[in-house]
Amino acid sequence: xxxxxxxxxxxxxxxxxxDEEARNQVCSASEVWSLRQFxxxxxxxxxxxxxxxxxxxxxxxxxxGLDLLAPRDAEVWLGDAVKAAVLxxxxxxxxxxx
Length: 98
Description:
Structural class: mainly alpha
């Protein structure tokens, strides 16, 4: 995977951050949502995001969720639940910018 040292990931779209130092650039640990919170909120996103001047939502726990599942089950879960929530969140944030 290509390491990105620029800050563009903090301003555009969806980013996967696996590094605590990078995460600390956009939020404090207390602002991080659990994966469970994220998936539950996908039906009713809050108006205000917890980080980066109301522009960022940081979610943790994907790796732990994947570790609990068999590879085929993890693939299905990612493709169904997680992908759907990420795309729904992305649509929500794009609508808010209009």
